[in-house]
């Protein structure tokens, strides 16, 4: 393609709200354009890249025996009512009525729709396992779209769903999909993409993994052991903390005037926050109090808490609600709580530590030497579960080594759903004994546009993206300098034609712009290989060659050897994206 | 792929509402499944076919210098307000509010969205002409979805938009697109697809063509001259009717008791309906009367009428409205009308005919010998324009030969839009003199699913589709009979593998079903080439071969020559879909 014809202006400036490399370069390079908040048009450059990503997705899904289908974007609400999600999912699910007044929605994920297929088309154990996938438009009515293609409202997703006759079969297939995902992210050119344990959130199910492209701009925090044996999303990460195990001392009330925070009381008593117990009050969806105790140096992980109490939305309780429970804000503790009447959740950092400072449930007083096993009344009604937020440096639960914190962009996720959808929706099959059983399901998603953006986050310099060969919009960028000189034009035209004839996807800058301008455009377009023809190189029957990531370095190569040289370079760069190539 | 693993049951019965071959076979063959009215899931068979169609569309769009983009399905209402269509288009445009209360819609076509791209990305005449296209999901909230994939609510469409600096450039490019469309429909295997003049309807613009796949179940009626020189949709077709040109006789009132219809009055007066004038009363959107006169044997073509009076919605007027205009229902005519006060439209069949019978505007009376040029008061206020519905056998406007009526399915359309969108939306470019001018636009659409359905309508027998090789879900269907015999299984497995190794897309029926059952499935799947291995053929080292459209005929071919034979067959059948092959 000739650059003069390529639709999509390069821009000098990024929009003010663009903070991340991918957002900046996707706009500046003419890959995408904003239509409305969270809605983008992919321009030809962006569409070329996403089509290559989609092709890789198809190949890898076909490799794991997937069959491509296409479900509608617009779905009837009744399907989601069957699974119970119509009521459960919040306003990110876009609901509307059609012209006949029927409740409809825009699919943000397609478990219900695919179950509708499976329950009619998969009848016998002989047809299992089976996997269906699609590459299709999704809509999620995000309150705050951000960061270009990282968090949008409408997006293209590869979503895949597997159906099994046993948990064992699911687990084996899940492992195959995990491997396929590792291959995919390698093939699209991500340099560092980690699979981590994750919270399955609104999808439900037991085991799930996220694939995180490591990038400073990532929204997600990952805790990883240095040897890589443990990796988990902040929402589910656990640490193997050491707890004080001293002999219990007698409870002892002390005067702690005005000490309403952990910092206050620790400073006043000359103790560390880890020697105290923090009381945190939440309210659930029904406005009922949830009393949470955690060691004073730790923070409550609300994702863990929501999951523990199976409540999708929680918020802090106000003083009124706290007082109504018979406690004193700022000085509350388990000592003043009737665990039969109030929901209490205690982190092991409290239940397993000795001699903590707790509130005395009395204005301006605390108690020394609280020991849960001795002092907590109604212990049998209290839920003890890990609800602590992991901190960088906390010991890894597997190895004890200090955990590292990384930032990542979630580019894919896989879930073992079990029978969460198949059971309520009667998605059954007949087993070998002719008995009807619900299918065991898995699901597997990758956002195409976000994957493209994540590649930029990992592969760019100050001037633009450095596209991996496998998904680059073009393979070779040919620039003619002083192209209004007929011999340059002729040499460029010939070279361009010979590249095309050799099946090489070439972009040809035939505009006759000045070198600096042409190179800046080339940097923004980020094609991996660049050829520059100028009167100077032509005089030597040469072409200047450089790889996009060589910075200022370049090489001169003989004009008559360009074609085999470029073909060799393409092969070498493609090899970097081969799934069997070890990551640098 | 093994048939035992293919997701999508074959069904013995079609749903009760399925009347057309495509609807029946798409369901019975397991190509698609209904999700909700007008919403379908494409199962693997259907998706395989649509992907092949999409690939052909891409190739042909790229051939006419198209650049692929992807615009959102969900669009902000403000874009459609700019063009004025947000208010104009009816309830087939699905409107909703997002979570922030902003007015949004589901795109049913993307002129506004692509103009938003063009007006920022195309700046100079140097960038024109330019064409952008996408293959993407559309939603149209049809009141009455019908006939399977023929009329749905959600569908995949290839929509393309071209931008030009002059009408001349548009017209030349329009011609190229017309040729591309002819190629496309040939390549996907349609046997008879005619391009016809059409009404541009809500799209606006001057010239437009529809591509009609000829099929008895088609919703559209086409009038064509026997030599093909004239073809037009019923909505715009014209005929070169002969009108009586006798010397005017004096007006003469006659008593016609109870003769309220043309049939009554013609019978009573022993004249033919063509010797009478019919008065038809409509009301426009503002409930204002529109009085229409047409020769008694002709029918008003409401599409023409709507276009003539530039009123998107009309309906019959009630007697009250008719009487309020001072006329007598059943006996009304131009003789009783004040054309200054009432909108009057007269067909040339009335204005150019002599001595017609018209209503006397008096109960139970008509007038003989009405002559428009003599008797119509206020003629200068009357619009005279063709609003007649063409009938089969009417003379062709070009050749005078009797027009034939054909039924067709609209599988594509192309429009010369002119500046209908670019002018109101300020989609301008700078011409060679640095002047800002609105771009001249064209647009070009093809529905992918409907194209697939149209192919079935033209290519099927009583037992299922007969897929053209170019879009067939598989190239070869291999059936093993008595496959539980180890030597049959082995021979089939070997043959299947050798087909795959040769790059042939083969479906392998490895289920061991009885011949009749297996053949019925094969007919429904419609793969163009079929190989059957059985103990009987194996004993002769042979394979039974047939083409899908051979009926009961088959051939025996040597097992060791199958591969080159099949490759040859594939080439021959592909050649039938080559755009340079003359249509049978």
From TrEMBL, chains A, B:
Predominant location: cytoplasm
PROSITE patterns on file: AA_TRNA_LIGASE_II
All copies of domain Aminoacyl-transfer RNA synthetases class-II family profile, residue ranges: 33-468
Record flagged with keyword Cytoplasm: yes
Keyword Nucleotide-binding included in the entry's annotation: yes
Cellular component per GO, a single term: cytosol
Catalytic activity, EC: 6.1.1.15
GO molecular function: aminoacyl-tRNA deacylase activity; ATP binding; proline-tRNA ligase activity
One GO BP annotation of this record: prolyl-tRNA aminoacylation
Catalytic reaction annotation: tRNA(Pro) + L-proline + ATP = L-prolyl-tRNA(Pro) + AMP + diphosphate
Protein's cellular compartments: Cytoplasm
Pfam family, one: tRNA-synt_2b
Class in the EC hierarchy, top level: ligase
Keyword terms: Aminoacyl-tRNA synthetase, ATP-binding, Cytoplasm, Ligase, Nucleotide-binding, Protein biosynthesis
Gene3D superfamilies with a match to the protein in the record: Anticodon-binding domain, Bira Bifunctional Protein, Domain 2, YbaK/aminoacyl-tRNA synthetase-associated domain
Task of the protein: Catalyzes the attachment of proline to tRNA(Pro) in a two-step reaction: proline is first activated by ATP to form Pro-AMP and then transferred to the acceptor end of tRNA(Pro). As ProRS can inadvertently accommodate and process non-cognate amino acids such as alanine and cysteine, to avoid such errors it has two additional distinct editing activities against alanine. One activity is designated as 'pretransfer' editing and involves the tRNA(Pro)-independent hydrolysis of activated Ala-AMP.
Entry similarity comment: Belongs to the class-II aminoacyl-tRNA synthetase family. ProS type 1 subfamily.
Domain notes from UniProt: Consists of three domains: the N-terminal catalytic domain, the editing domain and the C-terminal anticodon-binding domain.
Complex and partners: Homodimer.
Protein name: Proline--tRNA ligase
Organism field: Oligosphaera ethanolica
Organism lineage: Bacteria, Pseudomonadati, Lentisphaerota, Oligosphaeria, Oligosphaerales
